[in-house]
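ok so heres the complex, three chains, lmk if somethin looks off
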Amino acid sequence: MFQFIFRRLSLVIPTFIGITLLTFTLIRLIPGDPIEVMAGERGVSAERHAELSAQLGFDQPLYVQYFHYVTGVLQGDLGNSLVTKEPVLSEFLTLFPATIELAFCAAIFAIFVGLPAGMIAAVKRGTLFDHSVMTFSLTGYSMPIFWWALLLMLIFSVTLGWTPVSGRIDVVYWIDDVTGFMLVDSILSGEDGAFSSAVAHLILPSIVLGTIPMAVIARMTRSSMLEVLSEDYIRTARAKGIAPWRVIIIHALRNALIPVITVIGLQVGILLSGAILTETVFAWPGIGKWLIESISRRDYPVVQGGILIVATIIIVVNLMVDITYGIVNPRIRHSR
Amino acid sequence: MSLLKLENLSVTFGNFRAVDQISYSVNEGEVLGIVGESGSGKSVSSLSLMGLIDYPGKVSADQLTFMDQDLLSMPEAQRRKITGSDIAMIFQDPMTSLNPCFTVGYQIIEALKTHQGGTKKELKHRAIELLTLVGIPAPESRLSAYPHQLSGGMSQRVMIAIAIACNPKLLIADEPTTALDVTIQAQIIDLLIDLQKEKQMGLVLITHDLALVAEVAHRVIVMYAGQIVESGPASEVFSAPKHPYTQALLASLPESAAGRARLQALPGVVPGQYDRPKGCLLSPRCPYVTDHCRNVEPTSQGSLERQVKCHTPLNTQGRPAA
Amino acid sequence: MTIATLQAPAPRTPLQEFWYYFKGNKGAVSGLVFIIVICLMALFADVVAPHSPSDQARDALLLPPAWMEGGNWAYVLGTDDVGRDILSRIIHGARLSLSVGLVAVTASLFMGILLGLVAGYCKGVVDTIIMRIVDIMLAMPSLLLAIAIVAVLGPSIVNAALAISIVSLPHYVRLTRAATMAEMSRDYVTSSRVIGASPLRLMFICILPNCVAPLIVQATLGFSSAILDMAALGFLGLGAQPPTPEWGSMLADALQFVQRAWWVVTFPGLMILLTVLAFNLMGDGLRDALDPKLKQ
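and the predicted structre for the whole thing:
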């Protein structure tokens, strides 16, 4: 088992190096002189240019620059935002809880709807329920989620007035930032109605962000389940005289989940990139909105650092998925 | 006393009759061999006994009783109590028939728990007993093994352990050795026959190994294209086959070709959904075919003890009776 | 007996076989029909569209759709905040979306096949390097990577198309490589090699035709994600720039109309959804039809 984890870990390192190379090169691909680009329309004097160039290390050979960049990254130094002058990492850390909260709720929604839907569709194959699940999931899979966000907002917030339009909580509440998670902080604040307001603000964004993962999970669960249900060992289980629900839940689902777990893991990337769109529509103060705003402000260190962090998170999550996969699937756990 | 009795059992998938009106019975402590080519409906008929035919497959019968209980009309929950305890089944490919996600112990204990119950310790003790009974060395440590860690022969022994866990009165073995190495095959058959004698079970042995059936079975049923073409005591059927198909099967055995240059083979294949002949199903392949055979389907002749489905059953010289 | 009268189906040519399975899939056929309609609409946008996409009717700002009170049949789906006909903009937007999709898919298909063939054929170091890069690209969500690329190159429709073709590259590379590796071990490739076929001939004449089926499916599905990503970039202001009638960028400032003009929000997005759905339906149908063995 440890060997298995170790092997997976050793595969992650080159990927991480590749991503640092990518973010490092990205910033140097900007057409024109990076310092002038960063300075924007005001321009810089020649001395200031030389000074900045030395400060940012642009006068050194590329491999030295890369080495400095990577050592900085490993020490948690991702540079400072050109706009706020704050370290990129600390900006990221203040905004990240909002995104985690949103992505987590979206994932919960996706799994708790997608998994049972896919499972029942497989068991009741060919029925109306199966066809509806397949239709809905294909539609969800094809959904431009920014439009889906606008549409749900139009229906539930504007027309029906059931949910708030945007933000994380009603402006009447002043919530102290303790954990960064609004659901937790609103309870800690002890204010009446703060928690329910936080929940109400989360509903639409979570549904929007969870739609594509839900569709993917439902489809994957269905096809995986169909495959497993035709396996010989399911016949064996039934020949033992076990109740049908037990055959499905214990014998089939356990095996069917193996590929689904991988797919759920892959959704983390989709959730994080979908967060960019969802946060933009719902004015959700997370890293997605932060990244887009820094792009339009040409705040390159933030863009560079943000992409690096997000990519790293995705690699780490994929690694964890791989390891979970090994735990669930004995065939992998025992191989070498 | 007869354990299992079926009369005119049919299994249909849409338009296709996989099993076509078969009737037979199995007595207590009896070994019944069912032989036939691939696609002759042997497996499907046995799955229908276990209640394992799924939609769109349909099972119908004039009678399907186990120890005088009607299996077709009883509620599903009640039938499940019989399935896996009184009637058990082992399958063709042991490597894929065990659930890869659970240990051997779990899968044996699950069978025990479903039908008998007991404390954790008792169940574990019983599982070890079963593994010893089927000849698995070091049974205590095997309990925590996963199926992929076992060889094919070991897996089939585990499958047998699961099947006999609740002391079944009838065991159905669907080609239990086809997927195994030749050297292992004999061991598994010996084990099955020993267990059958020890526990006085009824055993339905489905196979295309005629020599094996001749050796171990009391009675034999020959199936062709979903129908029973001949049945009777094993010694009689093999020494004096009445149906041309049985005769052809026996002639195709390497043993019977001793001294001759070529093996006898029956030309053609079992008819499928689209090419079922009008009269006797064997007519396109039968060496003794007549126009009557091509146009009119024969009915079963003789008693349930010795039946043959042919217009012109063979006499003791192996020639069609005039 | 009725069973005896059933006839075995006559053997079909591969193309007939494909069409037999494809036309049995209602979703796939409706997807195909929708795509044909959209393509025709895009081709003849100038004829079909009732107005020019940039014409601003100063006297008809935010006009509701024709069937609503205050609507005008001259502007069937209503007008936007500067009085442009939404229907005309959607029709012209189809042209843009489809051509961006076509360019992006063709570019990445071409590059992907090349890299995949080379990786699968050469193996060793070349393969490792190419696949490592592909893995790194796959570790990033495609939209994020596209955003990063556009952020660097500057927002424009050309850069967006470029970014999309880069991010969809890994799928084609992996697919081609896997198929190449599988075909390489086949006897017919070995025999071609034995009779002295050149590597190029082996790659393009022997191996490539055998990878075509999965590539066609992937390209169809790639079309849908290209259109989706393009719209997302447009929505974020990183794709087509404002006056251009592009479906995503039509929604870029729709947020402010959510409260008062639902039609501005609804129609362009509906169009994206339907088009993407049509491509996905067709892709699924193609996959099933091209590989009947996989059909359940």
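quick notes: The domain at 23-294 of chain C is CATH 1.10.3720.10 (MetI-like fold). thats all i got rn
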